[in-house]
Amino acid sequence: MSTNTNDILVQGKHVTKSYHGNVVLEDIEFDIRRGEVHSLVGENGAGKSTLVKIITGVTPRNNGEVDFDGHELPIDFPRTFVEKLGIAVIFQELSLIPGLTVAQNIFLGREPKLGKTRLIDKKKMVTDAEAIIKKYNFPLDPKAEIDSLSIGKRQLVEILKALSMDSKLMIMDEPTASLNLKESKLLFDIIKNLREEGVSILYISHRMEEVFELSDRVTVLRDGQKVALLDREEISPERIISLMIGRDLSVSDYEESVLKTVSGDTILEVKKLCSEKKFSDISFSLNKGEILGISGLVGSGRTEIVRAIYGVDPITSGSVLFDGKEITPTVKQSISLGFGFVPEDRRQQGVFMQLPINKNICSTNFDRYTRMGFVNEKGEDAIAESGINMVSIKPKDPNYIVGNLSGGNQQKVVLAKWLVRDLSILIIDEPTAGIDVGAKDEIYSVINNLARKGVGVLLISSDLPELTRLSDRIIVLREGKMIKEFKDQSITEEEVLRASSGLI
């Protein structure tokens, strides 16, 4: 079907990008029409984020041409130029400034001024923020500091920041990764309204149901190459997944799950655990070789509980027992006892983005390759190589900077630094947020293999198919309290969601 060139807002021709000889985009052709939702999909490492960075000037292309609204974009251009063009971006990695309020973050760099002065009109900024929050019905306080918000609400601020600009193109990179179902539905309604207003949306997501619901067209990348462009009538989750990975998944994400009790010895007990204003009276146990799923809507206290068990956050009252002995959790003690912790926000809390893979993997293993303050480089290299091979990090180069890796490979680095240790318990929070289906399968295999070796796993996930598929038992939290336990039964995603919502 032919398209009038006036209908095309963005067009890329022969776009190529490589890092140190490693080709991440090869001769890519693409276009985005005015007033369409165009999804960009592919496994982690397929080149999606690199293509977005080229469109927005974050990363210069090596070859090719990118036209926006009929004008060729220079190879390298500043972020301010992007905003003037009318391109708004919601990156997968949050770009909010800690210490500032919601209003200050929404209008950062575009603050209203007092008359003709250079002074910021703080009252107007709050009023304008209140207006846009009310317009889109987001549960936010414009005066709240970013540090006080959950990851999900911070993501809403990122979305409002983009919506506050009069944009022709809005790029959304995994916008629902930290949102609950209600927040996601609200975003979908906004996207559909923006499309009706003639705004183009470039939508990047690993959640196939979202891609199917929203997309007018889908571009599929694999290994840095464009492998398909699908029109609306050609789009189906099965077709997209097949194109993305070039193979069938071994296990369907939609199978019914059966929970079965693991009869190993108890390795962790939590008794009447409380933390002021976060959670209260939490009691549960974890057996060796068991995967205990922890479910709850954003704000239910699930992340706060595992952070307290690990020793990151304080406990007001209650007790934690490891192997039958009461402990006072600290991070140092947790590591010495064989606890591993994969946090919800991997970029801020899980990896050092500016350091290479080997330094990241070894960051929790100083005790294994240092002596009297001196580094044993051979020991360091051996540990890094072991971790890289355990989870198939790509590229395998131990000196590759983690910040340049795909989201899936960054998550593998977080896992690897714990897998090279002798683990007794793994706490893993949102293990596959923003990760493609192929990498998901690999991470699921790692979790299952750990459990088979007798490691107890605390699994926190908003992905209900993931939670029901992996867990041996599931506890449900709501508003900081444990309200339901599922065990020894068939389980559906709907049952877990209803419990999380307080309906059963």
The total tally of domains equals: 3
The rough form would be described as globular
Tell me the number of strands: 24
Estimated helix fraction: 25-40%
- Taking the alpha carbons of the first and last residues, their distance comes to 51 Å
Main beta sheet strand tally, sense and closure: 6 strands, mixed
- Order of strands across the widest beta sheet? 6-7-8-3-9-10
Can you name the CATH architecture of the largest domain? Answer: 3-Layer(aba) Sandwich
* The CATH fourth-level homologous superfamily of the largest domain: P-loop containing nucleotide triphosphate hydrolases
Structural class: alpha/beta
Question: Any key phrases for this structure?
Answer:
24 strands; 6-stranded mixed sheet; globular; Rossmann fold
Explain this structure to me?
It is a single chain. The chain has 504 residues and is α/β, with parallel strands linked by helices. It has three domains: 5-245, 3-Layer(aba) Sandwich (Rossmann fold); 257-338 and 422-500, Rossmann fold (3-Layer(aba) Sandwich); 352-421, no CATH class. The chain is built from 18 helices and 24 strands. A six-stranded mixed β-sheet has the order 6-7-8-3-9-10, with helices on both faces. A hairpin with a 2-residue loop joins strand 4 (63-68) and strand 5.
Briefly, what is this?
The protein is α/β, with parallel strands linked by helices. The protein folds into three domains: about 5-245, Rossmann fold; about 255-340 and about 420-500, 3-Layer(aba) Sandwich (Rossmann fold); about 350-420, no CATH class.
